[in-house]
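Final report, results section. Input specification for complex C-07:
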Amino acid sequence: MEAFIKHFAAQFDDTEVSEFTSTTVFKDLEEWSSLMALSVIAMVDEEYGVKIKGEDIRNAKTIEDLYNVVKSKQ
Amino acid sequence: MNTFNPFSLEGKTILITGASSGIGKAIAIACSKMGASLLISGRNAPRLQETLLALEGDNHKQFIGDLTQTEILSAMLEEMPVIQGVVHSAGITKNLPFTFATGEKMEEIMAVNFFAPAELTRMLLKAKKLEKGSSIVFISSVSGVWCAAPGGSMYAASKGAINGLVKGLALDVAPKSIRVNCVNPGVIETHIFDEGIISPEQLEENKKQYPLKRFGTPEEVAFAVIYLLSDASAWVTGSNLLIDGGLTLQ
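Structure output:
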C-alpha cells in the first residue's frame, strides 16, 4: 500500500507528498485532472502490469479504493 | 436509365485495410454499393468475414493477416490483382501521457498507423499493382494536424506523419497519374475507445466541444473516401479533407 501511495504521488507536481495517504480523496485534489487520470492508469500498467479503466478511477474515492482494484486484478 | 453519377466506382478494384471494423468496414460497404470490386484485409477472421458478407455484389475477396508483418504483406501482394485504389484504414490509438510514451510504445503505434501503410504503399508501387490513374487514400485525423488530445501525443505523431507522407508521396507518384490524399476525421463512433481508458462520461463531455454536437459516423468518413477514390476528384492530390463537425473552427 505504501509503495502504491508513493507511485501515485509521483504523478503529481504541485501537491505535497504528505497530502497522500490511503484515505486521500484524490479527485478533490486541486491538481487532479483527466490527464492525471491517464497518468495513474499508465503508472498502474507500468508498475503493476495491471490494466485499469477510466471507470475504475471514477468508481474509486480514496487511494486505498484504487489500490484494492489494482490488487484484485493482479 | 441514364443516371449522372460522378462518384461511381464501377470498374475499379480497391484494396481496403482495417476492413474488419469501424471506419474500414463502413468504407468497404459503401464502396461496394458504389460498384467497386473489393479486396478487404483485416486481422480478425470472423469479423472480416462479417464485412465480406455485408458487401453488395459478389466480386470481392478477403485477405486475413497482420500487415505489420513483412511476409504477410508480401503474400497478399503476390496473390492480388492490379488495382485502381487503396484505402489505409487500419489504425490503433493509445492514450498515454508523454512521460509514459516509451520507445517501445511509440514503435507499437507507429508500426500500425504509419510504417504498415507506408510500406504497403511502397510495395504496391514497386510491384506495379497500382494502375495509372489510381487513388491512394490514407485515414489520418484532426489529431496531429490541427489539434491533439491530452495523452494523445503518440497518436498525434503517427497521424501527423501520415499527413507529411501524403504530400511527399503525392509529388513522387504524380508522374504516374496516381493521386494521394487523406481524410482527417474528428472522433468517429467506433469501438476504438472500448478499452475503456477514456470513460464514457469523458467521451460525452468531449462531444460537447463539437459545434455540430455529436461525433461523426463511419459512413460520413466513407462518403469522403468515395469522393477521393472516384474520378470526381481526378484533379485532387496531396490534400487533407477535414471531416470534424466543426471541431477545429474554434
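The beta strands of chain B are 13-17, 37-42, 61-64, 83-88, 130-139, 179-185, 240-243. The longest helix of chain B spans residues 103-126. This concludes the modelling results for the funded period.
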